[in-house]
Amino acid sequence: MGGRRIIKAAAVLIALGYSSLLVYQGGVTFNFQENRQGSVQVPDLSIEPVTKTNIYDSAVNKNISLNDIFISVKTTKHYQHTRLPIILKTWFQLAREQTWFFTDTDNRQLQDQTNGHMVNTNCSASHQRKHLCCKMSVEYDHFLESDKKWFCHFDDDNYVNVPRLVSILQKYNHQEDWYLGRTSVYEPVKIYKKPTNKLMFSFWFATGGAGFCISRSLALKMLPVASGGKFISICEGIRLPDDVSMGFIIEHMMKKNLTLVPEFHSHLEQMKLLIPETFRNQISFSYAKAKDEWNVVNVPGFDTRYDPTRFLSLHCFLFPHFKFCPR
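The structure assignment produced for this chain is given below.
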């Protein structure tokens, strides 16, 4: 079995090895990076379960429930004291059993706080392409091992509006092939052949920084080329990041188009342009910091010195019944 997998992976690499790549990313106006020296500290707010049981009742169809969704969050040891505490105190409390964190180190405290949902991928903590692809590969394989109907990936700088995620997925049939997300570019990725620079093919991809979802039907069809670490081989063959490689597999190899869902948001957008009256309709939010300027949602609530990412304020705006929210 191992020999067959190696042969298949080698075939993919041979087929792609002679190509070169040009990626055009138009219209991306933000290139924010979190200032590690000015790390975000979250006070020791109480972590508590949801007290209301009807937060999902506004959904139209009941064919998909929260328990049908595998939510994965890609993170690293560098952010276990800054980004993760914010998630654990807010939206994670709405999906404790459905959310898994994929990291690169062991942390007993976080394992306890997530009820054993921290997965050490044994991938490197660096932000290099190969290591990001390594984590995505482990995320995908863990979803395949579950009995879930949807695989939804997010980053550790995302806030996920869990009820809205459920209601959006209820509009799609998990037994059909669906790739849901939002692009961060204005043109598709284009792959050319050298030395003629002839366009070989192009494809769209959903940016991982906003999150994306894949139906189980489509995920199973990807199994021959993406499972068991073969996803990493694809990444290395086309030399593109994890979310772009996911788009390559789905749009080019599987011939399934990305379905645009504008309710996903990344820090490549101007978060302040999102209108508070629409927050309940959005699936994901993000934040970033460049020098001394934060790219965050404009939401009333806690003092910015206490809540610079605005995720605590956003959570209380959406779910004011949490005890730590201002009264």
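Interim note for the steering committee: The longest helix spans residues 129-145. The chain has one domain: 66-318.
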